[in-house]
Amino acid sequence: xxxxxxxxxxxxxxxxxxxxxxxxxxxxxxxxxxxxxxxxxxxxxxxxxxxxxxxxxxxxxxxxxxxxxxxxxxxxxxxxxxxxxxxxxxxxxxxxxxxxxxxxxxxxxxxxxxxxxxxxxxxxxxxxxxxxxxxxxxxxxxxxxxxxxxxxxxxxxxxxxxxxxxxxxxxxxxxxxxxxxxxxxxxxxxxxxxxxxxxxxxxxxxxxxxxxxxxxxxxxxxxxxxxxxxxxxxxxxxxxxxxxxxxxxxxxxxxxxxxxxxxxxxxxxxxxxxxxxxxxxxxxxxxxxxxxxxxxxxxxxxxxxxxxxxxxxxxxxxxxxxxxxxxxxxxxxxxxxxxxxxxxxxxxxxxxxxxxxxxx
Length: 360
Description:
mainly beta; 3 domains; 6-stranded mixed β-sheet; 4-stranded mixed β-sheet; 2 helices; 40% strand; elongated; disordered N terminus
């Protein structure tokens, strides 16, 4: 007698059962079969119906003839319905990278495919980074979280690692052959979440990202003496601007100053570009970029100065004629137009960074 406890009818087909006599067939709860001339079961007589039957668990049917398909016939068979336990669960993704605000639907498959209880639960290892509700993952902030799906039956699990990354900021301003990023650098080699925020500060040719707010300790007062940046604080494909590119920005790009909360900007800063007078954050930035008035951290103790005022300072990759200084993109509010200059200041100061890349 064959035991087909975990066998689907598709598997029955593969065994080539035809006109089999006096056998027992085990099927799973909810599976459908075609029945003919069923004998009395629990005082109910099922007649020749040619209808699909959905059987509850522990049902026992003694049948004269069961037609599995048009060509497969089982004769004089006892049908016993059993639960099928979940043995594992799979996800359609094992790892995925999202950008801030993205959503993704994960699909869980409980195995075997005809397991009786196919319900699952979802959990995120860090809901501050990514949440999950019924398989829908939402990227909340930058970092990594593990999404775990668990079967209700048996507690079988599998995971998907979700990395929330900063998107390429896109290009809103092109000057000659130079493309200016639409946001500044926050963490080392990482674009900021948005343009209108105070970002971290860097000393010349150093990878340490000093906090955007608050006081700091252990500030290095001796500057790096390198004549160029031997590290690249920008993400792959991006770089620091040159003195010449800052001069081109000054000569060819219109700009205007905006105090905080006046044009959608959370902090004070400067709109640059052909539409500088009408651009606003966050969505009306066609042909514009925004540079925050982040000020700087002083060379003696790293104290913040002029943050949120009327000056923004951003490193270039060019050393000044005085080799103790590096060239900055220095932008300052002035009437009638903010000034932009390529100024040389001590390499021990902490400045912001705005990256560029070549327009190939």
